[in-house]
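Weekly structure sync, notes
Attendees: PL (lead), two postdocs, one rotation student
Agenda item 3: pending single-chain targets
PL asked that the sequence for the first pending target be pasted directly into the notes so everyone works from the same version. It is reproduced below exactly as submitted, 198 residues in total.
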Amino acid sequence: MAGVFKTVTFLVLVFAAVVVFAEDYDVGDDTEWTRPMDAQFYTTWAAGKTFRVGDELEFDFAAGRHDVAVVTKDAYENCDKEKPLSLMTTPPVKIILNTTGPQYYICTVGDHCRFGQKLAINVVAAGGRTGGGGATPGPAGSTTPAAGGTTPTPPAGTTTPPGSSGTTTTTPAAGNAASSLSGATFLVAFVSAVAALF
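Predicted structure, written out during the meeting:
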């Protein structure tokens, strides 16, 4: 019985160590999710950030004045708001990144997207952070990520269908370390320390 307790405790501690280190991003930081003054604002905001599976994007905005639509690359590039993969209208919208590859978000209100209220990121596998690279800016003036890829799938676990309002959340697949230690290095050190206790 003591062996089972030790194993369960060990697994809970390892899971907690992995999940605790997921990064939470407030999209646009203090500017939040709004029609920006600079059409490149969200591209610049994402540049140098590494978005990983398990991280969370939080879109804060004024209800009724903005929304968040998950769209395809083509819809992102053309600000096509007619058939989003998912549409959330009640702030704050929280999206846990659970698939790798490019992800595209726009505001469907008025011409907000055409004025730069759109975000393209590239999500990489969970693991340690070693610097920037999650969103690779394209050439000057570009609003799409240089990293190629296929059309993203909508976030799994979406709780709000297109055309409805509400906050969307998904279940994190894993987390990562946001410190100078990479997540893998931290996890190995943590597991070694916990194993030494048993």
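Discussion points:
- The first helix runs from residue 2 to 20.
- The first strand starts at residue 24 and ends at 26.
Action: rotation student to compare against the earlier draft before next sync.
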